[in-house]
Design brief:
The protein has one helix spanning 134-141, and strands spanning 2-5, 10-13, 16-19, 24-35, 39-48, 51-53, 56-58, 61-72, 77-84, 91-97, 102-108, 113-120. By secondary structure, the protein is mainly β. The strands form 3 sheets. A 6-stranded antiparallel β-sheet has the order 1-4-5-8-9-12, with no helix packed on it.
Length: 142
């Protein structure tokens, strides 16, 4: 997924006009790769270029998550290991403007984590319908 956020915005800031119209590019890549032994590798990547949104200047940022999934016993139970924010790059640097002031905020999130999820389906659904539909009679007739 790719997109762009564009605005045409001017603001009176400390007795002068400033333009807050630098576009923001957005890119997101979510992919599931089928591996041998019926395992799945999930690669999720997102990036955003620097630019303006409303009265805010946002600096560029990016993030990458990885996951490995495997199901067992005809999907009765499954195992997933997930590593979020692989490169510890999830940061948020913004500058907010108003008529009189300018506020800079730099947040460094501690979002890198490793999780293990084990799921068991108590009532794994299986098709129990054994009847014949009315359409089968018509198909047999042809």
């Amino acid at each position: 997924m790719a997109g762009i956020l564009v605005q045409d915005f001017k603001l009176e800031h400390k007795d002068r006009k400033i333009k807050l119209n630098k576009p923001i590019g957005i890119f997101r890549f979510n992919n599931a790769i089928h591996l041998p032994w019926d395992m799945w590798l999930n690669v999720d990547f997102s990036a955003q270029s620097s630019g303006n949104g409303d009265n805010v200047y946002i600096q560029s940022r990016w993030n990458c998550d990885l996951g490995l999934y495997k199901s067992f016993a005809s999907d009765v139970w499954s195992l997933k290991i997930q590593l979020n924010d692989v490169f510890s790059t999830y940061k948020h640097h913004i500058t907010i403007y108003d008529a009189l002031s300018e506020l800079s905020v730099k947040k460094i999130y501690d979002t890198r984590d490793l999780s293990l999820t084990i799921r068991y389906n108590f009532n794994a659904s299986r098709s129990r319908y054994k009847g014949r539909g009315a359409a089968n009679i018509e198909k047999d007739r042809f």
